[in-house]
């Protein structure tokens, strides 16, 4: 089994475990990102980040525990596919680049190691392949995570219109409108399934709807690029310190991988978060708010409207939640992936030893 295949499978396994652990935070964060609000007139005051726990409890109260896990099934499929594809191509490219660097080192061209820029390019190429293949899954996940939120906004808008009509109507019409209002008030948005999400996306935008948010998502390839650049640089430095007499050929521990992964993801998230918000806005149901300010025709339109109606604050909604979720997920993913790779390598080594022992006995 090649190292690229092992890395891909280990990445998929680590990604699934990390996703299950952090999914409730991801659901709340997506809702925070897609929530519209006007520009703040005064600085200060608590933001949505400070109310993450409250939002989680409120979500459980209104939608049950299932609300925290809306879209989990396609998300797990997407995570397995994304991490598997990403790590497979990342390891494949990494092996080739390391071979080239080693060959150049033997010729006296460089020190035989891969430079920081090369790590960026490798991660960017692997990330672009991953995005093009898996973005339809994440469009469905975003829809399922924000469906009840969008439906609630639609119901609120209908309610406001009915109240205005009641205030202007004659007694007979007002009675009929009040019955409609009572029926509307009894409606409760409920999470919908994957097939419903697929039908809704196709009905709204056709096949192209499954690739909404592609531009900011492709630009966001720099997120894992930055993440892996930081991760590889830190792990390389740590390993070089361990290469002395005191720690001969000692691998970095699972906890060290966890901490390095956390620092790498934190740095990448801080740089690219505004693009993540734009992506979520484009992939969410566009009827939120039912007005022009809340509907986007594309990436540039979304950016301009967010600046105009919400200010720069809009690009950082839910950032606190995202930092906690993404750093925890990345740390778990890196740690589990590395342990799975070590396990597979050990398993292969033992299998080979067993086969050699049997062949020698013969």
In short:
By secondary structure, the protein is mainly α. The protein has a single domain (3-141, 213-357), classed as Mitochondrial carrier fold (Alpha/alpha barrel).
Q: What is the chain-wise order of helices and strands?
A: HHHHHHHHHHHH
Report helical residue fraction: over 70%
Q: Average pLDDT value?
A: 79
Q: Total domains, how many?
A: 1
Q: Roughly how many Å apart are the termini?
A: 26 Å
In total, how many beta strands?
0
Cα Rg = 25 Å
Describe the sheet with the most strands: none
Q: Which class best fits the helix and strand makeup?
A: mainly alpha
- Unreliable spans are 42-50
Write down the CATH topology.
Answer: Mitochondrial carrier fold
Work out the strand percent. under 5%
Contiguous helical run count = 12
Global morphology: elongated
């Amino acid at each position: 089994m090649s190292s690229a295949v092992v890395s891909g499978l280990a990445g998929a396994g680590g990604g699934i475990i990390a996703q299950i652990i952090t999914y409730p935070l991801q659901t709340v964060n997506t809702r925070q990102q897609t929530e519209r609000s006007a520009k703040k007139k005064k600085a200060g005051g608590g933001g949505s980040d400070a109310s993450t726990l409250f939002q989680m409890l409120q979500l459980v109260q209104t939608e049950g525990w299932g609300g925290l896990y809306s879209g989990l099934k396609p998300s797990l499929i997407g995570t397995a596919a994304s991490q598997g594809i990403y790590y497979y191509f990342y390891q494949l490219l990494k092996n080739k680049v390391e071979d080239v660097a080693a060959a150049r080192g033997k010729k006296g061209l460089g020190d035989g190691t891969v430079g920081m820029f090369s790590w960026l390019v490798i991660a960017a190429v692997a990330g672009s392949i991953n995005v093009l293949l898996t973005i339809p899954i994440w469009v469905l996940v975003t829809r399922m995570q924000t469906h009840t939120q969008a439906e609630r906004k639609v119901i609120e808008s209908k309610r406001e219109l009915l109240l205005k009509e009641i205030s202007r109507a004659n007694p007979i019409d007002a009675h009929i409108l009040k019955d409609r209002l009572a029926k509307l008030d009894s409606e409760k948005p409920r999470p919908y399934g994957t097939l419903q999400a697929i039908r809704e996306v196709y009905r709204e935008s056709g096949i192209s709807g499954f690739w909404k948010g592609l531009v900011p998502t492709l630009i966001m390839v720099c997120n894992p690029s930055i993440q892996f650049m930081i991760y590889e640089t830190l792990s390389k430095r740590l390993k070089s310190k361990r290469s002395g007499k005191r720690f001969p050929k000692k691998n970095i521990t699972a906890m060290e991988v966890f901490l390095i992964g956390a620092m790498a993801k934190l740095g990448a998230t801080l740089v690219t978060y505004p693009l993540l918000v734009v992506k979520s806005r484009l992939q969410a149901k566009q009827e939120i708010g039912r007005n022009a300010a809340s509907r986007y025709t594309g990436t540039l339109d979304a950016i301009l409207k967010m600046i105009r109606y919400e200010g720069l604050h809009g690009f950082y909604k839910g950032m606190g939640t995202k930092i906690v979720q993404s750093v925890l997920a990345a740390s778990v993913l890196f740690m589990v992936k590395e342990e799975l790779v070590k396990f597979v390598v050990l398993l292969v080594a033992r299998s080979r030893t067993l086969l050699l022992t049997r062949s020698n006995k013969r």
